[in-house]
Amino acid sequence: xxxxxxxxxxxxxxxxxxxxxxxxxxxxxxxxxxxxxxxxxxxxxxxxxxxxxxxxxxxxxxxxxxxxxxxxxxxxxxxxxxxxxxxxxxxxxxxxxxxxxxxxxxxxxxxxxxxxxxxxxxxxxxxxxxxxxxxxxxxxxxxxxxxxxxxxxxxxxxxxxxxxxxxxxxxxxxxxxxxxxxxxxxxxxxxxxxxxxxxxxxxxxxxxxxxxxxxxxxxxxxxxxxxxxxxxxxxxxxxxxxxxxxxxxxxxxxxxxxxxxxxxxxxxxxxxxxxxxxxxxxxxxxxxxxxxxxxxxxxxxxxxxxxxxxxxxxxxxxxxxxxxxxxxxxxxxxxxxxxxxxxxxxxxxxxxxxxxxxxxxxxxxxxxxxxxxxxxxxxxxxxxxxxxxxxxxxxxxxxxxxxxxxxxxxxxxxxxxxxxxxxxxxxxxxxxxxxxxxxxxxxxxxxxxxxxxxxxxxxxxxxxxxxxxxxxxxxxxxxxxxxxxxxxxxxxxxxxxxxxxxxxxxxxxxxxxxxxxxxxxxxxxxxxxxxxxxxxxxxxxxxxxxxxxxxxxxxxxxxxxxxxxxxxxxxxxxxxxxxxxxxxxxxxxxxxxxxxxxxxxxxxxxxxxxxxxxxxxxxxxxxxxxxxxxxxxxxxxxxxxxxxxxxxxxxxxxxxxxxxxxxxxxxxxxxxxxxxxxxxxxxxxxxxxxxxxxxxxxxxxxxxxxxxxxxxxxxxxxxxxxxxxxxxxxxxxxxxxxxxxxxxxxxxxxxxxxxxxxxxxxxxxxxxxxxxxxxxxxxxxxxxxxxxxxxxxxxxxxxxxxxxxxxxxxxxxxxxxxxxxxxxxxxxxxxxxxxxxxxxxxxxxxxxxxxxxxxxxxxxxxxxxxxxxxxxxxxxxxxxxxxxxxxxxxxxxxxxxxxxxxxxxxxxxxxxxxxxxxxxxxxxxxxx
Length: 928
Ligand SMILES: [Fe+2]
What we know:
Blueprint: H1 38-42, E1 72-77, E2 81-86, E3 97-106, H2 120-128, E4 133-139, E5 153-163, E6 166-175, E7 182-189, E8 195-203, E9 210-218, E10 228-231, H3 243-257, E11 273-274, E12 303-304, H4 340-359, H5 370-378, E13 381-383, H6 392-396, E14 409-411, H7 417-421, H8 429-438, E15 446-447, H9 459-462, H10 471-477, H11 484-489, E16 493-498, H12 506-510, E17 519-526, E18 532-541, E19 550-554, H13 560-604, H14 610-615, H15 622-632, H16 639-643, H17 650-661, H18 669-675, E20 679-681, E21 689-691, H19 697-720, H20 724-728, H21 731-744, H22 760-782, H23 785-789, H24 810-818, H25 820-827, H26 831-844, H27 860-863, H28 866-890
Antiparallel strand pairs: 1-2, 3-6, 3-8, 4-5, 4-7, 5-6, 7-10, 8-9, 11-12, 13-14, 15-16, 16-17, 17-18, 18-19, 20-21
Helix pairs in contact: 4-26, 13-15, 13-17, 13-21, 13-22, 13-25, 19-22, 19-28, 24-25
The structure holds fe (ii) ion.
The site of fe (ii) ion has 7 residues, from helix 13 and helix 22.
């Protein structure tokens, strides 16, 4: 049985009417019944919001409704609660229905209930007068006689009182018997400040309670006279929309789409597209000019349009702002603690990092000894107390162990779990390899299928295409266990390939002071116990700048010099992997690529569309965190540029990766694994895929999670779309998907690989892919950041010096021979780079106390449909099973990539977590 369809109530009589003021424009009025009651609207409401519509600005009763006047009185009770008492309540017609509405409003830091601001007093008075929140019930049905929308039933809601962080408002309506089902509620906020409405519950209807989940900011009518509309929790495909709601469904989407002009204001809810043209700041400094990402030259996904003025020096770039617009409901709700992670990130970026910069005057200073790195965890570093911390102070207290009072303060990091378990693991080759399968970036390792390894770049520019890693090198390193051909045939050879992507940027990057770059290839051999062993690293500098090509193959030999060169080469590869992880695997493939899905969904899918309701929990906070990233992380001169090897070319490189590599169809986990040769289709295998490396923790857990999501989505889709024709005829759905491809990912709109959207299977696959990327994919590459990169020698974000064998001066090489440890420390990030990145990674790895995990909480609209409710409960159950399965795998001595002495168990895809830096937990959405 398909869920919610509005029952058609008989509509024998015209409705109770409503009217409007000139100021407060209704959402749309032209079809409303015509009788005016202007004089009522101009009157102030007396001290009452009692039962029915007696004292309200409703129009006169129709002659066929008999209604006696009420006499009301008001008494003040403590805590400003006003209660209306009806001294001689009389009924309306016998068939009218008395309905009570309870509105729950969240107390927020910056909203109406904030104690800040001059308007608070005025708003309190409005509350006392009972004229602060106007509700109008909207019928789902048209008037059968006129064929027009029925007049709404309206009433002011009266503030009852506050409990903890919630304030309740109450309203009593008398609904005419022929009103039909309630389809929506119009809300007008007559306070001077916005308010955050959680929900509205209507009690008293014969068919039971009507729930309206809002979770939305409602603007002040003084900012925007347009009333807000909230549809009930019943979901409708466009073709099923009750007649009385059709116009409002379209109108609401028009509002959300906006007109595409003007600068967006904070209270607005407009979703629109723009290029990434706000990363640079050419007006501030010439060197902060950055290319526009998006368009033919630098293809890129689109971000949310803010409409700010262009910069003076570059009309194609948008001026920067310290407060980047996102549609109001995408912003963090500002409820105490609810914004934990992002506020913490904001405080780290805006308060702590400047403090670190102040303390470390020499920006090039590296760590003099390895013990100096350890002291960041053991003893702390002196740091001037950050200024202007305000209430961020309490948020920061968990980040740093201690800020002592008086004088300079001690700034101390938590020891990352990896180092806590095994202080020397970062040094070992086994751990270097293991992390390609179970670490922070399990997305880059690939099977070698062809030999010799060849570059696709132009050899005339970049030098010989063929790799310097020869057959002999491989066979020597695998010690004659098998030949190279047998290794390739037996799927034993794997690669981290950062050659072609980085090579064109080597000279550009080397022009930036304090950094360097190579193209790299790292080869691994799969041993009999399913672990990888690194064989060789090739570092390449192409020909250019009047220099010939330079490249060298490093192996882990037994002599001391080779060992130290190997360690240095590993540092370069780790920096490549670290940059690729952050710029491509994390930022581009999750945060950045998903913003268009959110924008398109809000522009094209009604809030009452079942697919919108399926996706909504998976969009939480993403646009806000992305806006913050544009403001302070990925911007010109921001953390990424100043701390990662590619420097100011970082974002441009992510554009190159988008151009060359990003494909929607390959974002599905099974397709991604197959593309990298890490799995093949096998109908007999679990989930129909046989893994090339059986103990591949990310893939093992990921495929289970993928399958659970797919089943839930399939159940959901098949319930709402029993026939494929319903998918093709669903105009909102088709428009959403078209817009994702043609506007959100406009630079890839003509690619042949976009999935078509015709059948239930098509829709299930598209939605599963999106939900996987924002949940499993993001969690796997986000929440291990501090564990694996908090101790930066394990994953330096930048290497600052060339290999000592690349055209060294005699002194440089002698220094390397004399103190190789110092050469490594000099190559690693500077103190300022390392500590800034550590602070940011710790916040990014943190789960806030209000985190919403996948399969954990049922959406109210799902709960109202028994079939969907049961499907979600199955989904939730399957994720609980996955928890147990992951625990069991981590305890299995045979799975050496996740079990062993000092090894961090692979828990990144365990669905649920406690708050904090836990290295587990899959949130519904990209929320940090
Ligand atoms: Fe993230």
